[in-house]
Protein 1
Amino acid sequence: MTHRFCAALLAVLTAAPAIAADPPATPAAVVAQAPAAAWRAIPADALLVMTIEGGKRVVIQLAPAFSPRHVANIQALARAHWWDGTSINRVQDNYVVQWGDATEKKSMPPGLTATSPLDYAVPLANRRLQVTPLPYADPYAPTTGYVGGWPVAMDGTSAWLPHCYGYVGVGRNLSPDAGTGAELYAVIGQAPRQLDRNIAVVGRVIDGMANLSSLPRGSGELGFYTAQEHQVPILSIRLASDLPDAERPRFQEMDVASRSFADYLRLRANRKDDFYDRPAGGVDLCNAPVPVRAAP
Amino acid sequence: MTHRFCAALLAVLTAAPAIAADPPATPAAVVAQAPAAAWRAIPADALLVMTIEGGKRVVIQLAPAFSPRHVANIQALARAHWWDGTSINRVQDNYVVQWGDATEKKSMPPGLTATSPLDYAVPLANRRLQVTPLPYADPYAPTTGYVGGWPVAMDGTSAWLPHCYGYVGVGRNLSPDAGTGAELYAVIGQAPRQLDRNIAVVGRVIDGMANLSSLPRGSGELGFYTAQEHQVPILSIRLASDLPDAERPRFQEMDVASRSFADYLRLRANRKDDFYDRPAGGVDLCNAPVPVRAAP
């Protein structure tokens, strides 16, 4: 009975062509059937390609619209090859995988931008964001939705990126330090939304997440690897735009203003297919991720 | 700057004695300072001790008050040593680790109890639950709180266990099959609350979670290991009550009616210490787990 848990899901994933004449019944079917017009190319200079020990690749999509100063620094650090030879130093279960310069002695490249806690959210004054609302309650914010390919939490004055699974944030010292972007972490468990607006969120892992999430947990305090454990070498981190054309990954995100995304959200909140008896009637912001795919 | 992300958290974890005269400022400090009266022993027949390849141990706390039929079956299967020689067959990133009889041919022990979808929630009629409310919005349920050591979601007629990180559910075939309890999975990512009331939740991993969450992800559909991959052998699964006294793990859970738990919840929802600038003012049901500790 190994396969019982997911028999229906498997059927759905493989049945999309067969039911193409009907409206898609599941989020996976919506994504599989979404027209080309529902997808947007992710710019190559917003893709960070991390290669770790064993040649394993992790691709991170950066969010310059939400964290412009931190993202500019991360782009500068990648162009300076700053992370080459650094390592993954911390893996705390149900929390984060963190990487950077374990020696804490490596000098910064010139021209990094100063950051502050004001960079943790985008003020809404004098700007009109096109928001696709998520009409369900959120424990952490008055309203939530999607803007320009990203989930956002909002109050009356600002919008910010949530700490969802796979999302990437910037390590910092005690406030008012807001971090340069050289020390990064990715969330590997239940969304630690208490970090929202306390740390800069700069992007999300869109490929190779398992190369981070399945790493051995560190036995030191807060999951740091001890001297007896193996810090995972980072071979290189590059912007896709700086890679040779043949090595450049290409990804697309679903347009959050598209009909396909509206269908996807409705079905994420109301699963009703062969496997599900009782639709939830709602979905958490971090449990309805924006679909991303490799460019066909 | 490797340690910057968590400098303050580290201080908190190590500073509890130094600040014992002050009210605890963090959830970790509340747990560290909670008096003996705030803790309750977890019964040995509600502890499932799973030993996998390499002698790695995973301890699961069962929830007989919420899933009595499924838990009775799991206790019977453990007493029959049914899982010995089975394996972990599926690891899907940000979803579940699943184990059971990969051959799907192993016969069931006698005396298992019939189950149905009615077992997914506890009816509230003719019963008064002592609920410690969690007074924050939830995307999946009208109300949430804690009952008898467990987080619960509720509507006007029933209460059910949520699919939080580390929570254990029962694989099943298509409805109305509700599973016997022989095929189990543990959540290893963002809480898949859409499964609530669609599958039986029977407990939670309280020790050794990393032995499941750091397993290599399966490359097959839905994360099943392929023939070229390594199914992880399960050496044994026993009830702690059936182990020799010297081998028997002993754990305690925080009393959800205690002052310590109230302080813990308040601080989980309002982090305000050296590291946090901006308290969230709320917390997700799955982001405020009931503290569990090894018995001192």
Protein 2
Amino acid sequence: MRKVFRDVVTIDEARNLLFNHFTPKRAVETVPLHLAVGRVLAKDVYALTDVPPFDRATMDGYAVRAEDTFTAEEDNPVILKVTGVIEAGKKPEIEVNRGEAAEIATGAMMPKGANAVVMVEYTRKRRDEIEVFKPVSPGENVMYAGSDIMAGELIAREGSKLTHREIGVMAACGIKEVEVYRKPRVAVISTGNELVSPGEKLVEGKIYDVNSYSLAAAVEENGGEAILIGIARDDEAEMRRMIDKALREADIVMTSGSTSAGAGDVMYRILDEFNPGVIVHGIAIKPGKPAIIAVSDSKPIFGLPGYPTSAMTVFEVMVAPVIREMAGISESEMTRLKARLALKVFSAEGRREFLPVNVVEGAEGYSAYPVSGSYSGAVTAFAFTDGFVEIPENVVMLEEGEEVEIRLFSQLRPADLMIIGSHCVGVDILLSILREKKPYMSKVINVGSTGGILAVKRGEADIAGTHLLDESGVYNEPIIRKYGLRNVLLVKGYLREQGLIVARGNPKRIRGFEDLLREDVTFINRNRGSGTRILTDMYLKEVAEKRGVSFQELIASIKGYTVEAKTHTSVAVAVASGKADVGVGIKSVAVNYGLDFIPLRSEEYDFLIRKGRMEKEAVRDFLDCLTSEEFASRLQKVDGLEVYDRTGEVVEIE
Amino acid sequence: MRKVFRDVVTIDEARNLLFNHFTPKRAVETVPLHLAVGRVLAKDVYALTDVPPFDRATMDGYAVRAEDTFTAEEDNPVILKVTGVIEAGKKPEIEVNRGEAAEIATGAMMPKGANAVVMVEYTRKRRDEIEVFKPVSPGENVMYAGSDIMAGELIAREGSKLTHREIGVMAACGIKEVEVYRKPRVAVISTGNELVSPGEKLVEGKIYDVNSYSLAAAVEENGGEAILIGIARDDEAEMRRMIDKALREADIVMTSGSTSAGAGDVMYRILDEFNPGVIVHGIAIKPGKPAIIAVSDSKPIFGLPGYPTSAMTVFEVMVAPVIREMAGISESEMTRLKARLALKVFSAEGRREFLPVNVVEGAEGYSAYPVSGSYSGAVTAFAFTDGFVEIPENVVMLEEGEEVEIRLFSQLRPADLMIIGSHCVGVDILLSILREKKPYMSKVINVGSTGGILAVKRGEADIAGTHLLDESGVYNEPIIRKYGLRNVLLVKGYLREQGLIVARGNPKRIRGFEDLLREDVTFINRNRGSGTRILTDMYLKEVAEKRGVSFQELIASIKGYTVEAKTHTSVAVAVASGKADVGVGIKSVAVNYGLDFIPLRSEEYDFLIRKGRMEKEAVRDFLDCLTSEEFASRLQKVDGLEVYDRTGEVVEIE
């Protein structure tokens, strides 16, 4: 039998073992005040001077003795002798005696003798005298020395993340540089013969290095400074060299890959040569079990698994807290959010599972969608993951609708506009017109027409693009009713021509769906639930009927029927690259890729919206774009897409 | 009469005027992928390759033809001939035929002929053959080319702020650099003869420049790059030179100061020399009315008022949206929050008011406390301002308890621990022990004992430090009951010695409160509501009684009675610097500043906590620190503070 992880420990045990051998320490550096925004203060800061440093006029006017003005009235002014002018920034040379006044500017230092300022609006100047029409009380329009900040006051506390507020107050106190925590330096190494760096040529068998980049970005997001060391081949000497280099340059070292038993325990052997060496080998966590923690002379080395999602999970659970601690960043920066689970989930007993989820805001709070593909090395698991749900070791199942707490990877910004549904080039054009108008943050999830309708039903989508043909020959409306949606609006969109996309010149001489059954023809299908897939299946059912075979039999003999592309563009790329001979898609995409197009029919691409969502400015602006002349003219340039007399028409579905 | 703002315009008019002469444009720059975190994507990014780029094994094991394994059983294995080994990163040289298998590593490319991988755990190796104990279906443990990302798919959308997620996906597609929006460059100039830069010596009449630093920090917070040009004296030629320099280096220019009519319209005259020159002169906004907007050859110049809060308000309302637009940052980044107004507020009719508020989380949601001092040039208004409430032009009053929407200056992070109440060195020690334990984010607002009790009553404080003596001679408990608090705990803290703080050697020979009445003695008082102030007034009432005068008469003859320091430290600094001869405070502070101390009495400094707050980990940890040996020993080193037999004792108040 092969080596297994014999000493798998729980997350808490792993932490305790780590902190037995390593104490996170914070280093301090001094930065000029104007570069300190976003940094974490390393020391309490006290005011060394009063603010303001002297009694100061807060208005333009005349510095006076308040007692002299007590009898002033609108129609019976007091007359005072003006003995001088006091400008801001200068020490007054004069003193104000009884019956006297000194012209003074906002911010200027009060002269001796004066205890108030009469606003210029309540005076009239006559040669070297002024008339005062309104009395002032002692202290009026004067800001006393130290009344804003007194010398000795604590003005900013250790551990604060500096914003323009603290920086302004420190500037007022004359502080020109501050001591902040130095960002902990974290070295990142990827390992594996199969890895090449982005930008390099990809020869067969190789893949691009993901972890160096995603982990470095995550280090920065957690307040650290990432140092990219590079890719180590599966060669012990090279790995050791790079780890030695990393230990010289960084406070924390992270490797990814080469940790599983299958890799022959290379990383374990290398890391165990340090002193004290490996202290954790395997953590009861899913994904991420084959993780290693080692220490070399009180610097921690984390050996993360190679799969991107596993590496990121171990990073978040084990490494990020150490970086934040060293950076002086408070725990509470990690945002938590309550949501309901959108699907039932099974979990592994005996391991703590970190389930990646996508969060969508609905009518009744947040929904969490488990992200699939996270354990198979898929990197798109990243793109849709907002955070994760921690499932304890003893829980084997979570019910649909159960409330869960999500730890967000980064601050969740609710999108201004959430579009879930069918993918269409027209939507991309609408969004680009919308973005030129206002910098809305839109999130688009392409899940096909059916997925869009369900997302609107659950209140998660603002808008769903849909093009579903009913047997009755009517688009969208009957199917929306069938799904039981109420209080929604169907806004008619535009027409788009669907057809068969084939290579330029149609070398395989494809004429229709019958040709998909040919031995020499490879098809590329669309994902289930998409309008195009439903259209495809309708045509194929006709073929099956004509031939007198079942639909199942028919599709079993189509090469490539089970290969599902998620967008029209992906279909075109598959045909253009020769991976497939034919697919179903819209004309514009075929033309874009220089492919031939065999028209099938024009379909109605519409937008489904809950009535309540019309309150959102972004939704109204989106619909304005739909009926704009700019959209009509930009759509005209796209083959097979066009607005028509129903564009913008609103069908209410009660 | 002097010049007034004749053409004051509303905020919307100001925006329209600005955008008639200036169109914000976004510049694009290319950055390496590993430096792109936090930047805003300038173009939609499409995948140029499939991910994975080939069919890939997702497990260590043997690549087989699934059909060959269909009859495999635990006790009746299928035997296959092993024809070679396929490593990750290499193109397989072999093909798998019927009855054959190839050893394959996770991530390696599938060989021709094979369509599934048997996990190594379900096999046994015997020389050049393997036994397979479990069947696999076609595609099992294989990740197909393009199944994660298909070439042609949109992987990141223009306008996205890049996180480790998008960066990981782009790396997977081999993208090594990305086009992002260049941060708009914003030049910052302060004007005024009275300004000196922090770090320089402050001669009489001068103050430190706040706006350069707070505005530069705010520029960075809004996605811009700040360029500090410096301080321009009130000299037209110098101002013009600096603005010319700023226009050469930046996309947007900001000045502050010299905008009001009182400054002789200097800034107006200078800015009007550009082409087209001044387009807005005065905005109906409070604070910030005397703001100028000019344009020079399609670059905007904002002339902000000089008062820090006014400058920041005009920045937030007029400048920040332009910076964010040019940086490609979505509007929704500006966080909004609903809160109830803690006090009644009057507003100016005809001007839109931006009321600075401090936000505190209470039992029933958020409370907004208007920040005082914001219109008088106080910079502490900054330190306590979390954001502002926009009050429309036609509203003259908002009721206490009214719901308002707050625009937050920066992301509001609720503190882990909110301590509102009396200031004490002992609390600082407790917090420093607590921070060494865990990196809690604590917020401390020193408002005196009474303010602390009220904050606990309203649910805004987790903990209030209090030392209020009742006429009965009992500390804290009777007064808390008098304020009607229920379901609270009074945790007994420590003893602290209060006394008179006088200069070293007591040159004025002060013996007691009687001496405060002397002509040659200047007193420094504490703020109303503080326990020390109440103690002071109790002693002074005794003096008044003895002398047969009223309390009011007595205090009228004390020099400095109306000058209120907010902390013990401030009192000590005032005495040490000679601004006052005597104040009331705790011994530790006096000793710290090398001052003499005349003991009055030992008081009981306790902590008031709502019962419900004991659920918070930070509160429990704080109380653990109170009874810890470390606290006792560190307190012992502070003169006049000591734990005693009641420290940690809990008094329930039902």
Protein 3
Amino acid sequence: MRVGVLTGGGDCPGLNAVIRAVVRKGVAEYDMDFVGFRDGWRGPLENDTTSLGVDEVRGILPRGGTILGSSRTNPFGIEGGVERIKANLQESGIDALVAIGGEDTLGVATKLAELGVNVVGVPKTIDNDLSGTDFTFGFDTAVNIATEAIDRLHTTAESHHRVLVIEVMGRHAGWIALHSGLAGGANIILIPERPFDIEKVCAQVESRFATRYSPIVVVAEGATPAEGTMTLQAGEKDAFGHVRLGGIGDRLAGEIEHRTGKEARAVVLGHVQRGGTPTAFDRWLATRFGLHAIQAVHDGDFGTMVALHGTEIERVALKEGTGELKTVRPELYEEAEVLFG
Amino acid sequence: MRVGVLTGGGDCPGLNAVIRAVVRKGVAEYDMDFVGFRDGWRGPLENDTTSLGVDEVRGILPRGGTILGSSRTNPFGIEGGVERIKANLQESGIDALVAIGGEDTLGVATKLAELGVNVVGVPKTIDNDLSGTDFTFGFDTAVNIATEAIDRLHTTAESHHRVLVIEVMGRHAGWIALHSGLAGGANIILIPERPFDIEKVCAQVESRFATRYSPIVVVAEGATPAEGTMTLQAGEKDAFGHVRLGGIGDRLAGEIEHRTGKEARAVVLGHVQRGGTPTAFDRWLATRFGLHAIQAVHDGDFGTMVALHGTEIERVALKEGTGELKTVRPELYEEAEVLFG
Amino acid sequence: MRVGVLTGGGDCPGLNAVIRAVVRKGVAEYDMDFVGFRDGWRGPLENDTTSLGVDEVRGILPRGGTILGSSRTNPFGIEGGVERIKANLQESGIDALVAIGGEDTLGVATKLAELGVNVVGVPKTIDNDLSGTDFTFGFDTAVNIATEAIDRLHTTAESHHRVLVIEVMGRHAGWIALHSGLAGGANIILIPERPFDIEKVCAQVESRFATRYSPIVVVAEGATPAEGTMTLQAGEKDAFGHVRLGGIGDRLAGEIEHRTGKEARAVVLGHVQRGGTPTAFDRWLATRFGLHAIQAVHDGDFGTMVALHGTEIERVALKEGTGELKTVRPELYEEAEVLFG
Amino acid sequence: MRVGVLTGGGDCPGLNAVIRAVVRKGVAEYDMDFVGFRDGWRGPLENDTTSLGVDEVRGILPRGGTILGSSRTNPFGIEGGVERIKANLQESGIDALVAIGGEDTLGVATKLAELGVNVVGVPKTIDNDLSGTDFTFGFDTAVNIATEAIDRLHTTAESHHRVLVIEVMGRHAGWIALHSGLAGGANIILIPERPFDIEKVCAQVESRFATRYSPIVVVAEGATPAEGTMTLQAGEKDAFGHVRLGGIGDRLAGEIEHRTGKEARAVVLGHVQRGGTPTAFDRWLATRFGLHAIQAVHDGDFGTMVALHGTEIERVALKEGTGELKTVRPELYEEAEVLFG
């Protein structure tokens, strides 16, 4: 059996661990051979392949990124894209595909499966916002990096009696902010699911200073103020017309400083959160995802993706992972609020 | 309401995070006050207390160990021990206890609960072998430390064409060995649940060298050879009669070296695995355990302990956590075996 | 003998290690007692003190920040400031001061020493740009944090065929950029000492992509383009008139993206570089600085500061550390250039 | 010009960084080509070579170990060994050798240089005990790993009122013990240069407990008790006649426990200290060593080795690095003693 493998969307620590497990088990147990497609769906679309065997996956377990490259190419947005993929797969004698990716990549996989392509999906999102699985790999790494940064900021905040705002990933869901904020002992956590009230934030800042300690504010990149409450507006454009400047972290620090008169500084963690060696948890989860995905291929159980439920890896329908976004439930946030301030 | 808190058994990263969450929420939400008991059950037995309030728990979230101290004192093994505990609790006006510990500590809690003491338990074991909960805090930290050590050993093994044996914690269950071995890309993983065949181990060592790579063997401290298969025996005593020397890691390295003629070295991680700052996962889990435990106290739901099921914190009967040991299921080990060698 | 201790300027990992060593040795060997002044020169100016003994310094060695707080208060800029300091020192019976700080703090110390105050200085700058000493503590920690971030960015750059620009500290000197860039294997390093040519930078970016690899650019916050070569201008102001947005990292990424057509992203490490636990090197250096500083006080060798020369701690005149800035010598940069691209 | 490169002796983080810098600069600046010799002096002895160019050194900067392999082969102990090396070098058209190694490897290099072989040396010892250079790469990494371990042990020691003994590398010199002990805030540091008095050690242990804190003892593997003072003897042999058991750490813990009645546990860090990714300092130093070594080759300045003096890389005669051992000077140890206990 010949199996193609691709990785799509933003990179995420653990992608290589999945690829390695897929190939190692496929070769050793099922005598499969493998073809790597480069840069997500662009690979099968343009038939851009790379050899992928036991030698190619040696030593990649602890490495971040993806040896296959990634892109956001969507064949459904390209005239004749799907037909080209089907033709390329047939021509190369590919019997099945393992598609590793997030909402977009798996969305394509879902539709291709409906069109008869043999696909098994592996869910990937650093933001942990895919439904159908308890956790996705990469998330634990990102949370640990953010937590370590918060640890570091505490001592600076105390020494200088300053507010420190740290902006973490999370465009639509506040999982990284919530977990790292809890783990790092942040005093305020702001997430996309709950538009925040800048006056309440400033009141918390001031009450924290009243105890002689300095506040740390963790804000998800997608968090937004309740309408009309903030002076600073988003999205200043640079000279080339790109919106680069003025993320929520910077704006929030500015607004807090202006309103409370306390020095406030922002740190925007950015890409540092998504690169580098995965944590043990992420390597374990990614490896198990890979082992179970190739088993699903062997079983001919296509149109499914692997998922973590408790401590079990199970299979769910692909569309379960690409349906609605998994956001932070109100009770989880409220449970944490008692530790704020 | 006045609540006593104690930590028993071996220390574990996350104990302080539990204590902090218990106190912070108890004070802020339920207007409770707290008494810290020193050194596990020795505290209430000897009425050895320490003040425990919001000030005492400030800054302890990221710190390993336990500010309350620990011991293995068992009041049921002491003449009149239980009566003294009950008298001391009454005298100090303690309405309820939060007991944080493993099999032994929670075993005492279970029996005290049956005798009418108001106890809520928080499960703790670095080995992850308590039933009733998916994971316990401290385990993730230990696995990450072991994984980082394995990462480091790989390069030395390669450079010197040597076997490296790493002994990790796990007296009765191989969870740390299995998780860190998978995450670190070990070539052989030996756990207490499966007596190993030294000849098969040596065959794997030799087949690994045949690929020009050097083997890493992860062995849980409680792993044992199938009877009669190893020359080296356990438990040499030192000049004072203590069994200090010759753990399984050292013995295994000796035996491999002798049988295969390849240099073999052992590293025994020991206490390094259980100290220091907890990972983000462990801080998050410990914090949530603390928040839910004090809520159980507030609800008067005694004789229970908190537990992680999937991503939910739930309450289970105390005895559920202290019944049978949670060992590695055969299928989990077998799933990983394809990656060995 | 009664000795006052203060820390001024930006915080820096290792400050607490200095304070601890000063106090531990002063108490144990010279029977001194200590007074902590809060927030740099504001402390003696306003006689804001805190008790400082062996108990206060227990456990602070591995902690970032400063238990004494810091500020940028300059008594020479305040009417009657110097007189108030002298009066406060006399009133509290302070025989000598240990002043730990950078150019500004030690500049004040230098002038006070000339006015007869008994001061010994300990040089501190995370940027490593103080003359008179080979290295200052905090620098090694910052370089390691930046290097780890670069390691993480490599995998993302490769996976997405993107340029990643990382802005590190260094307003006037490029030490952090040079060391972390070398250690992280950056492809381009830009420092304040050498105005850069944006066209050459873009040419290097393109030549790197030609090898199928993705470029990492490390840029010191104080690096500047050769005049007139960049479209994007510095210093956009936010709605409150603060210059918050548009540091060199963001501007450079924008310019590279525009000129080369390759996606470029910037990461601004910011305050994460200066907080948290110091590296072993910084703890060792800070501890030795503290031990030698208090010995200088004991010897009555005032107007001096401690300095690292090779592996020796020596004393130099205070003004040596506050004279000219120690910038990156051209030959050091040129030596590294062969590794660019 | 064709240049051979080899790495000998124990592996050490930074070896790959040296190799990379040598090759990158040699190719780019001097148009050299390179031959890698496998496993130290065994390579040229048996003419076991591997290709070594810009592609082979890509990505190796952050990796521990050595891509060239290592061994302790000494051609001077082998009949006709030197002649074979000379013949092999000539046959392969090798004009010069870069030999990276410690006392033994550079000792061979020194003698070969006297016999007319064109050699430049790069000093390597994780123990930092080579004379002629302020520091060697690998040492900083080892010290950081040991310090992190000590940090972790503190919390366990406190929680259990136990003595924790940590054995670190250092057979003949106590540099790692001294630096990590200082950085980790150890209460007792024992080094090979000063035979220790077990009674004094136990007195310090007890005085530490008297302050309600628990002692951490750092002991170099080569530290020895003053004659006749310890009951436990070294060097128990295992069933195969290997001396595996009973290093100084275990023996010391046993003796302390017996004499003081306090629980004592030993941790032996072992090989974990020498593997894995190098610190930023070690990458910087190793890279600069490589750049300067290949320049020395280009300059024809053979029989020399590179060395760090202050912040400068200089050349010294090869024999300077292989003469006497650089041990811890008494005043450095005494300076630190005030922080013990």
Protein 4
Amino acid sequence: MISLRLQIRLGVDTRIGHGKIQLLEEIDRTGSISAAARAVGMNYRRGWDLIDQMNRAFESPLVTGTTGGLGGAALTQLGRDIVAHYRAMEEKVSQAATSDLQAIEELLERARKA
Amino acid sequence: MISLRLQIRLGVDTRIGHGKIQLLEEIDRTGSISAAARAVGMNYRRGWDLIDQMNRAFESPLVTGTTGGLGGAALTQLGRDIVAHYRAMEEKVSQAATSDLQAIEELLERARKA
């Protein structure tokens, strides 16, 4: 199975990829950082750290209610906009990449049979 | 500055991204694993390990002449095909991603000014 992962780099040290976007989506769905972290297989501390990294990179919160610990977390409009653009980009990119990704998969299958 | 990085995942544990592709290109250019590793800022051992990972994943070499250590390394046709498809994909993906990436950059700039 071949698949493609995307990572957005903001400046030198901030990266936004699959894991952070999934975490944001789960916060939107569950309203809780701990539930969101659990849903994506992270502990609370790791989830909190990733959100903190994003909030700092944008110098504006993507998630509010991060101080209480349990419950009450929500995406800001900024957080929602970033998730939406990431997913829209992923969809377009995935279509654009299909033919070359298939070609690489065929090379892989042929090489393994040879 | 915002930018996008791609990573191809083959199965569970093999990833091909920017670093490995650059290394392959430098091997093609220099004919030497040590020169190639140096050009991309790795030590020889790290360069060799990455090539070994790719050769194993494809069960066929992407690079030949990896045993001697100094000089005499070259890409196989498989290695060249993979680099070509990766770069072609990157070009298409980068066009497909432009508008959403710009939108995220504008969100970033606006958030930092707010």
